[in-house]
Automatic annotation (TrEMBL):
The keyword Nucleotide-binding does not apply. This is N-acetyl-gamma-glutamyl-phosphate reductase. Catalyzes the NADPH-dependent reduction of N-acetyl-5-glutamyl phosphate to yield N-acetyl-L-glutamate 5-semialdehyde. It comes from Pseudomonas eucalypticola. One of its GO terms (cellular component) is cytoplasm. One of its GO terms (biological process) is L-arginine biosynthetic process. It holds the Pfam family Semialdhyde_dh.
Amino acid sequence: MSTPLVFIDGDQGTTGLQIHQRLRHRADLQLLRLDPRYRKDPQHRAEAINACDTAILCLPDDAAREAVASIRNPNVRVIDASSAHRTHANWTYGFAEMDTQQAERIATATRVSNPGCYPTGAIGLLRPLLQAGLVPADYPVSVNAVSGYSGKGRAGVDQYEGENAAQAPAFQVYGLGLTHKHVPEIAQHSGLAHRPLFVPAYGAFRQGIVLTIPLQLHLLGSDASAERLHACLADHYAGQRHVQVMPMAQSKALTLLDPQVMNDTDDLRLMVFEHGQQVLLAAVFDNLGKGAAGAAVQNLNLMIAQRP
């Protein structure tokens, strides 16, 4: 079997650069790179996509759709890191730990949509609990999350690391129109019956995410408890390399959550906190790791292992 040829379309952006750095020294694949003069040329990009075995798209949504439309070679497989296809019925969602069959679906898929950074945390917390019936599908879910400024892409890096960095805000809440593009993705892949209320923010740190979801136990049922919620998550992710569920005794000892504690890893850390009839679900991970490049490489590894 020949060495798989991988083309990263958009390898100069924050996610694309991270993926390239992770793949450039690997001996089990070859990277196809365009001459810098042709990176924005549609014809050369289309030729590269159709010449590779797997294309990883690190592009804005419209450009990702155009790239997919340019594919004529039926053997080309695609991992799309944009949000263009995350709720599309014909694309496989690239969250390998989402359920017991998802890694196999990814491995055999020709079209894989890489999860969004915030949805990785939200879905990671919610989906097992909804599947187990511990949280009803019609629960009024609120998701609060803070990401490092690299989550804004190159514009965020320029804002905080460029010549006007001194004027960059220490903290900014956005998505105030409540129509953030991640909302349908979170609802669909968590199994929610209604749109969650999603409040995202950027902080003055480069990378990392802390995401929290509050729950009121009296709305969940008479037998609901923090221990049952925690046990469900621990059982769901038992044996998973890239998802950790912190023991409740360790969570109780925490007095704060550092969004950067999982930086430079591809792991998602989940926690459950409680007081009386209130529970707080929490996720901490690297928005450029498990929230982007790490997930893309994880999906690529699954797909390479199951090459036709």
